[in-house]
Amino acid sequence: MDIYYATRDGHTRRIASHIGARLSELGVDARLRDLAAGLPAAAELAASSLVVVIAAVRYGRHLPDAERLLAVYRTLPAPPRLVLLSINLTARKPGKDTAQGNAYLRKLIARYGLAPAFAAAIAGRLDYPLYGWFDRQMIRFIMLLTGGPTDPRAQVEYTAWPRVDDIAGRIALLHSTDLSP
Length: 181
What we know:
Structural class: alpha/beta
CATH topology: Rossmann fold
CATH architecture: 3-Layer(aba) Sandwich
Radius of gyration: 16 Å
Number of strands: 8
Shape: globular
Helix content: 40-55%
CATH class: Alpha Beta
Number of domains: 1
Strand content: 15-25%
Mean pLDDT: 94
Distance between the termini: 18 Å
Largest sheet: 6 strands, mixed
């Protein structure tokens, strides 16, 4: 199984790696694929039994590499089952970690007409010192509007790692049902 991810600051890669490690512990061979290195061919996607996409949000949209992958995915005549995970800071709030409760994930699913087997939003990491000046100011403004931290020195890990483990378990279960006769 391939886990495709799109990251800007590396935290989504960290989440994808964590999921990959948990899948390995559960006996599932999963290969991490950074979408910045290139998109898979449509035939490669079509040959999969399960496609896992993990995408970060920046300024209200999922990263372009993930959007391009989903654009290819939706053109497949018989698309494989899809697991879609959105990494965003909105998911730090109660009820905003589901496809129904997370506006970014809900809009992404609607934009591409997707019917994922499983979709969830995972809270990311806020790391102001890591960002360039412009990104830091924009994210501080967004945090001001949404009641988050605005201290430019703030580094806050919102990711609930036990939940990420549970999600890996769900992916393993979906993968095992693909292998059943």
